[in-house]
Amino acid sequence: MTTSVCTGASTAAFPSFASYVRARGPVLLRTARALSANAWDAEDLLQTALAKTYLAWERIEDHNALDGYVRRALVNTRTSQWRKRKVDEFVCEELPEPDPVPAPDPAEQQVLRDAMWRAVLRLPDRQRAMVVLRYYEDLSEAQTAEVLGVSVGTVKSAVSRALGKLREDPALTRAA
């Protein structure tokens, strides 16, 4: 009696589903572990894929391609599980929502606006004009330069210096 060496999944090597699972189970489990988050999910995934394979065992014509068939079943099953994943909901007495942020006090906002305008009025005329055009009139640097008849670079440097003065203005730091 001659014994054949199993070099792949063939009809002679795997006359039954049970012999296929015994021989190839560890290899297929490694594939399932690569597709799953933990070992228990991998075992469940492999069991589901093998159940699908068992149901189709008689219809599978090429038993040389069994590993590919089971791997495809693993991937398809895992994809289906991922698509069907359920979001767990838990009942609780209080909603886990953060406390709403209180609306700013309109009086404090007005104090800050007044302090800002007073600080802008303390800027030199040219810087004040550029700040007003850029931030209150919402003009671009190029539009501001065109209105004032200066270069874009002049607008950039003057606005930068003006913003620096506003950041250092003691009246604004007290109002904020």
Automatic annotation (TrEMBL):
CDD domains: Sigma70_r4 (cd06171). Residues 114-166 form the RNA polymerase sigma factor 70 region 4 type domain. Keywords: DNA-binding, Sigma factor, Transcription, Transcription regulation. It comes from the Bacteria. Residues 21-86 form the RNA polymerase sigma-70 region domain. Gene3D superfamilies: 1.10.1740.10, Winged helix-like DNA-binding domain superfamily/Winged helix DNA-binding domain. InterPro entries: RNA_pol_sigma-70-like (IPR039425), RNA_pol_sigma-70_dom (IPR014284), RNA_pol_sigma-E_actinobac (IPR014325), RNA_pol_sigma70_r2 (IPR007627), RNA_pol_sigma70_r4_t2 (IPR013249), RNA_pol_sigma_r2 (IPR013325), RNA_pol_sigma_r3/r4-like (IPR013324), WH-like_DNA-bd_sf (IPR036388). Belongs to the sigma-70 factor family. ECF subfamily. This is SigE family RNA polymerase sigma factor. It comes from Streptomyces cuspidosporus.
